[in-house]
Amino acid sequence: MSQTLMLENLLVLINKIFTAIDLTLREEFIFDCYRILPKKNVKTAFSPPIIVKLTSNLYKKDILRQKKLKKNNLKLDLLDGESGGQPIYINELMSPFNNRLFKEAKIYQSQGKIKYVWFNNNNVKIRISDNSQIKLIKSLEDFDKIFKATKKDVSNVLLSEDDVEYGYPDSDFSSTSQASTSSKLKKRKVKPHGTMDLFLRPHPKNLPKPKV
């Protein structure tokens, strides 16, 4: 581990990033934050990503919304002052299962069978065309139902930063649960409702974005 990473204060870095997108850092909504450090003897040109676990789904949406509005402000220079304008990426963190579903959807998109693929609120969503309904992909079997096609290798599919963002209107498929209106509320331990991953990596060319 480098001396720089050992001494850094992640909350200070996160505050600088949030300030750049005109958002107030709310530490009471941060459950945990840490870097995913590279393996020993593995060299990489990119900074290890920072994982920020949140206790508020609404705060997560605020972050993603401001990220989209102030995207041009997210430059690595605001952290070190000498990175030549390299971008900072803020994305929702996918689980391995959702990552597999997303890559499968991108395969169908590359074949022209899906026009839009995106990840939002811990869900993989697709639209076959501009006028079709939004479909929520919960399993690989959902692709069979829609296309009845043979699965193909997805190991080399690249994810674009624009595919994983709060950039497409939420639909009725949203998985966010509603708060109970019962008067007999019980105290419970606060648990993270979602995670954010700050990616520092190049921006690959991607397929068409959803029309908002």
UniProtKB/TrEMBL annotation:
Family annotation (Pfam families): Baculo_FP_2nd (PF25298)
All copies of domain FP protein C-terminal, residue ranges: 96-146
Coiled coil ranges: none
Region (Disordered): 167-212
Bias-annotated ranges (Basic residues): 202-212
Biased composition (Low complexity): 170-183
Top-level taxon of origin: Eukaryota
Record-given protein name: FP protein C-terminal domain-containing protein
